[in-house]
Design a protein that fits this description.
mainly beta, Jelly Rolls, 9-stranded antiparallel beta sheet, globular
C-alpha cells in the first residue's frame, strides 16, 4: 500500500511539475495563426497549444454554404499528406448538402447538435444526432450531408488536402446558378 501511494504521489508531483506555467513546460502543439504562434520558433520544436480565445474565426471558405464560420487550429488544410485540424461554427438550421472528401474526416462535436447522414440525397430522416462530446468519422469518398441543431461547433481532424466535392453540382455555392 505504501509503495502504491508513493508511486502515486511521485506521479502526481511529476505531472504537476510538467503542467507548471513556465515557458519550458507548456503542452505544445502546432497552433492557429496567432501572434504567439507567429513568434514561436519555426523548427516545429515549440508550438503553443491554442486556447479557444486565440482561435481566429472568419467566414468559411466559399465552398461552404453561406453562414458558417471557419478557423484553422492546426496545420495547413491545403497541403497533401499533412495533418490538419479545423473548426466550423454552424448557425441553427444550417444545411451542408451531400458531398464527399478524398480522405477520412474525424469530427468531434464541441457544442450544439451536429446532425449527420450518409448517402447521395439529403434526408431529414437520414440524419443522426451527435450532441456535444460526440464523435464520428466520415470515411473517404463516402457521400454524406449535415445540419445543425442550435449553434453548433465541430472540430474536424484529417489529412490534407482538404477538398469538398458536392454530389449534386447545383449544390456547389462556388458555381454560378
Amino acid at each position: 500500500m505504501l509503495l502504491r501511494l508513493s508511486f502515486g504521489a511521485a506521479l502526481l508531483a511529476t505531472f504537476s511539475l510538467a503542467c507548471s506555467d513556465d515557458e519550458t513546460s507548456r503542452i505544445m502543439a502546432q497552433g492557429a495563426k496567432t501572434a504567439s504562434a507567429a513568434e514561436s520558433p519555426s523548427d516545429g520544436s515549440s508550438h503553443e497549444m491554442s486556447r479557444d480565445n486565440q482561435i481566429h474565426w472568419g467566414p468559411a471558405p466559399p465552398i461552404f454554404p453561406a453562414g458558417a464560420q471557419f478557423a484553422v487550429v492546426q496545420g495547413d488544410p491545403s497541403v497533401a499528406g499533412q495533418i490538419f485540424t479545423v473548426r466550423l461554427r454552424l448557425p441553427n438550421g444550417y444545411v451542408l448538402p451531400p458531398h464527399r472528401h478524398p480522405t477520412d474526416e474525424h469530427v468531434t462535436v464541441l457544442r450544439g447538435t451536429f446532425l449527420l447522414g450518409f448517402g447521395e440525397d439529403f434526408s431529414q430522416r437520414g440524419l443522426a444526432p451527435y450532441p456535444a462530446d460526440g464523435f464520428v468519422t466520415a470515411a473517404a469518398n463516402m457521400p454524406h450531408f449535415a445540419s445543425a441543431r442550435g449553434v453548433t461547433e465541430v472540430q474536424v481532424h484529417a489529412i490534407g488536402p482538404f477538398a469538398l466535392t458536392y454530389v449534386h453540382p447545383e449544390d456547389d455555392p462556388t458555381k454560378t446558378k
